[in-house]
Amino acid sequence: MDYSVGFWNRIAKRYAKKPVADEATYQKKLAITERYLLPRMKVLEFGCGTGSTAMIHAPLVEEYVAIDVSPQMIAIAEQKLVDKPVDNLNFKQAPLEEFRVADGSLDAVLAMSILHLL
């Protein structure tokens, strides 16, 4: 999967500057997802990209960890946290298959807008 990391690292800055292609659909997706999130939940989001969705969802739950394979995407996401802190949100660079969590430690796992990558 190294080719994928290189691709996302190369386009990260450009990707971060692009507006959401279909804002109405994105907002609908956020609203649907948020109906399932509860304040006591611990959530993992994989394929978080530059962290925009994580920044929106994290305040709704107890703990939110967002991962992405690309160090450049995570760097952009972490800068967003510097600009607008969200205390319960942590970004980590890791491929999903290598990211370890304790059994039963998560209440939800989110994968937003990644179907085209599978």
Protein model, in words:
Helix content is 40%, strand content 16%. Helix 3 links the parallel strand 1 and strand 2. The protein starts with a helix and ends in an 8-residue tail after the last strand. The mean pLDDT is 94. Helix 1 runs parallel beside helix 4. A four-stranded parallel beta sheet has the order 3-2-1-4. The protein contains four helices and four strands. It is of the alpha/beta class and 118 residues long. It is globular and about 35 Å long.
Provide the fold topology.
Elements: H1 2-17, H2 23-34, E1 42-46, H3 52-57, E2 63-68, H4 71-83, E3 89-93, E4 108-110
Parallel strand pairs: 1-2, 1-4, 2-3
Task: Tag the structure with descriptive keywords.
118 residues, alpha/beta, four-stranded parallel beta sheet
Short description:
This protein has about 120 residues and is an alpha/beta fold. It contains four helices and four strands, in the order H-H-E-H-E-H-E-E.
What gross morphology would you assign? globular
How much helicity do the residues have? Answer: 25-40%
Rg from Cα: 14 Å
Q: Specify the oligomeric state.
A: single chain
How far is the first residue's CA from the last residue's CA?
12 Å
- List segments where confidence is low: pLDDT < 50 over at least 5 consecutive residues: none
Structural class: alpha/beta
Percentage of β-strand residues: 15-25%
Q: Helical region count? A: 4
Number of strands: 4
How does the major sheet shape up? 4 strands, parallel
Mean pLDDT: 94
Strand order of the largest sheet: 3-2-1-4
Order of helices and strands: HHEHEHEE
